[in-house]
Amino acid sequence: MGDVDVVSEVLRAVHLTAEVFGRFELSAPWAMRIPDGDHLAFYVMARGSAWLELETADGEPTRRLTLSVGDAVLLPHGGSHVLRDHDHGAAVPRTLGTRECPRPTASEVVGFGGGGAVTSFVAGAFRFDADARNVLLETLPPVLHRPAEEASAHPHLSAIVQLILAECMAPGPGSAILTARVAEILLVQALRTQIAARDEHERGFRALADPVIGTALRVMHAGPGEPWTVERLAREVGLSRSAFAARFTQLVGEAPLQYLTRWRMILAAERLRDSEDSVRAIAAQVGYRNPTAFRKAFARTRGTGPGAYRRAHRRRATAMAVER
Questions:
Q1: At a CB cut-off of 8 Å and minimum separation 6, what does 106 contact?
Q2: How far apart are CA 309 and CA 295, in angstroms?
Q3: What is the pLDDT of residues 67-81, one digit of tens each?
Q4: Residue 145: strand pairing partners
């Protein structure tokens, strides 16, 4: 039961999609602000260097990160941020998505700046189903920075970075879908290195590397409909109930049954959208023998009951089909 791939399960459930916008060629001094939006940005550096500045809600920088050639950086929680040239930090940022700073495309490179040293990078975005994000994603750090030297130590990561850069420098037939798929692989590889990191204070995906809690997560994902209790999960991994609950909460970021309930509701929502199974059948599939208890749990986590959720999804799907 414990052989399930939790990372694949989570990314499948949140409907991960990626898009590579294209390439920027910016000459110093330059600065670009990326406003908060419905996507999670990533960048791959092709030439030169830059600063990445995370911003607070009022536009004040909270963290500055240096980016160099071959680096890949992902922002798992999105949020507004600024990219600027490394040597001339005083340039007024142009806002991405406006006429003065449009998004690049596979066939058109966006360029602006003061005519100095050139920095080139590829930009793109990841999108998730916001309703399906679970705590493993929510507890990722604000920035996943994979420096070029780290990529060299991980041949797969280095190859992914080079393929994205090469395809954006000389796009060919099918480039859009190719770079999107490679970007998805970039995220998976970044998560792998995150799991392998030796940071005892890191929560979320890092828990998968723990022999005890990683096993607990795998059995929960393998059998979400099982009648799990904290006591039963603790027995599965050979710990006392209290020791298991404390360790799980510390490493994952929430209590075992709270995590399990949220995961069950993600699966239930998926089945309400994609199957014709009755609410009673779906409730049983995700571990609820009592449909009333399932309805209450679903409404508590989703803000609406399962029947209303299914009807709303079908109305949206019908409207989208008509628009096409």
A1: 20, 22, 168, 171, 175, 176, 179
A2: 11
A3: 999 999 999 888 889
A4: 73
Q: Which CATH number among 1.10.10.10, 3.40.710.10, 1.10.472.10, 1.10.10.60 corresponds to the domain 210-318?
A: 1.10.10.60
- Pairing outcome for strands 94-95 and 31-34: parallel
Which one-letter DSSP state was computed for residue 139? T
Show the tokens assigned to 78: 């999105």
Q: How many helices (H) and strands (E) does the chain have?
A: 12, 11
Element spanning 189, H or E:
helix 175-196
Query: C-alpha 280: how far from its chain's center?
Result: 32
Helix (H, G, I), strand (E, B) or coil at 130: helix
Tens of pLDDT, residues 171-223: 888 888 999 999 999 999 888 888 887 666 678 888 999 999 999 999 999 99
Q: Which long-range contacts (CB under 8 A, 24 or more apart) does 221-224 make?
A: 221/4, 221/6, 221/9, 221/263, 222/1, 222/2, 222/3, 222/4, 223/1, 224/260, 224/263, 224/264, 224/267, 224/286, 224/287
**CATH architecture entry for 6-196:** Sandwich (2.60)
